[in-house]
Amino acid sequence: MDQPDYSKYSEPELRQISKHIDAGRYPERVAEIEARLASLAAAPREIPTVEEGPALPATVAGVWRRIGAFLIDSLILALIGVIIGACLRDQLMALGPWGRVVGFVIATYYFGVPQSRIGGGQSLGMRILGLRVIRPDGAPLGLGAAALRAAIFCLAYFLSGLPAAFTSLNGSVASGLSMLLFGVSFCVFYLLLFNRRTRQSLHDLAVGAFVVRATRGPLALPAAHIWRGHAAVVAASLVAFCVAGVWIARPGATDTALGGMLRVQHVVIELPGVTGATVMVSANLGDGGGFNLLNINAIVDASTPDREALARRIAKLALENYANAKQMKTVTVTITSGFDIGIAQFWQSQNYTHTPQEWRVAGLP
């Protein structure tokens, strides 16, 4: 019988043969099989590799992915705010409207540090959704540039109401500054939605940054620059918001409904112990009589005594400074204490609601 050529057999086949071969009759074949198996065991084995496709280029991120990352970051910031508020409630309440500055600093730090080279250009929300903030050369931003970018983005939300806290400011100046900050916020979202060429918003353009998909591929930034028309819209919007704020609060504007509300807000904030105020006119939906509910919310220190007396004084100022106050169905004064740092808030309120006539019976002239 011819000698089999065991070099042509695979390892599983050789092991199967070795189980059934008669070792006493074919000892030389058993020895050859064992030598072949030892040779195969000593030979380096090839590890199969999975071929990876070509790496996708790092292109500018879409608007919805950026919004999604921001919402995730907002939830994380809210959790941080709740923890800080629970630990420092009394201290934050003592800050009054300046608590917003605390929130501004926290948010700027939260976005600025991770989105710099320190954090690889990614906040937690961006890391989860695969985004990164970079310079045009693909490198992460420096800490200063990243902090400035974050500050511009957070500016309007946290600080838009702060100018009203400066009682030394002229009403028109405070209103103009507040509206200008609202204009910054408007421009941020306008560019984010409509600047389709580069997807750079106002805070991105300020430091020359791009938000891209975080991939291993080559950098593929858009070759085109932002459309000049967008720059014109941004400039015109900032000017328009500022002018509108000054116009609304001009000395002769108290005859208008909005001007009258701003006037009431200003005189209420000037009262001792009041750190902030908002004034609104709303509609009584069940009455069908139009906008006939005047609401004044005054923020005070938690230790403010005799809140009812303060409410009467505020109602008196409202009736004196709001031209349509006498035609209101009700005037509600809310005395509120607590804190608002933008990423968390806590309020305790007491409402005092009367008709204009009832407020007069309560001792008003």
UniProtKB/TrEMBL annotation:
A Pfam family recorded for this sequence: RDD
Parts of the chain that traverse the membrane: 67-86, 98-118, 139-159, 171-193, 230-249
InterPro entries: Pra-immunoreactive (IPR051791), RDD (IPR010432)
Domain RDD: 60-207
Annotated PANTHER family: PROLINE-RICH ANTIGEN HOMOLOG, PROLINE-RICH ANTIGEN HOMOLOG-RELATED
UniProt keyword annotations, A-Z: Cell membrane, Membrane, Transmembrane, Transmembrane helix
Organism of origin: Duganella margarita
Membrane topology of this protein: Multi-pass membrane protein
Cell location: Cell membrane
This protein's name: RDD domain-containing protein
